[in-house]
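ugh ok so i messed up the first submission bc i forgot one of the chains. this is the corrected input, ALL of the components this time, i swear. 304 residues overall. if the numbers dont match what u have on ur side tell me asap before i send this to the collaborators (the ones from the other lab, u know who)
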Amino acid sequence: MERMDQARARMWLSTAVAEARAGLAEGGIPIGAALYGADGALLGRGHNRRVQDGDPSMHAETSAFRAAGRQRSYRGTTMVTTLSPCWYCSGLVRQFGISRVVVGEAETFHGGHDWLAEHGVEIVLLDDPECAALMRDFIKDHPALWNEDIGE
Amino acid sequence: MERMDQARARMWLSTAVAEARAGLAEGGIPIGAALYGADGALLGRGHNRRVQDGDPSMHAETSAFRAAGRQRSYRGTTMVTTLSPCWYCSGLVRQFGISRVVVGEAETFHGGHDWLAEHGVEIVLLDDPECAALMRDFIKDHPALWNEDIGE
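and heres the new structure output, hopefully the right one now
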């Protein structure tokens, strides 16, 4: 797999940001994700659904993974997420052999992306100011909800 | 939290085994799980739903976690599973601070339970012959489906 260029990473991130904004508009936690295939096709997209569905298992990444349905292999796929993936979502990436993770930002929450890099996953960290602002504002306004979502 | 006695662990495992058997009867992958509260109350139970719902995100443990709904804290809870948890489900346990994992067997699949133990999770490994037989038979009859479920 060739290394990703930043322009494509930012284009794909915009799909995840649109999901995060949709979640926010629904009164939810503003984290979005998208799973892209090895050929660049969008396989699935989604956002955190804790508030909307009362479902703690649907983080942004698991939601995008679920939307992609059954896949025979995740080789060459890219998980794009507005926020550094928590251990739950990092475990998803490792178990299923997702090849690359594009991370919008890891400033408001530092999840398992270093661990994934150690285990051979390509990490593209974008330090995106829009992603960081979305989370910073949300955490300030809803600290208890955010802590619930990360088990703290 | 006091250490778990084996009689209680085996009693709780029977709930997970019943889930695994229900999944098998539906034509699915025979892995079941249950989440118990600190007070011993059953919070949620479920089984792998890849085949039944075409949903790769519903492993047994995530299914039980989902069925338990939103919880403010997982301190003192126990995840009981018929099979050693994969990285995805191990990440779930670590992220949400689930205190203990009862594992039916780790012979047919060795997941992340050692990693969890290193990170302070109490692991009760039961080496249950019924759990092992369920998986051994399933893997023999449906190797491709099993490999799909663990991303291999």
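quick check: Chain B is about 45% helix and 20% strand. that seems consistent at least. The mean pLDDT of chain B is 97.
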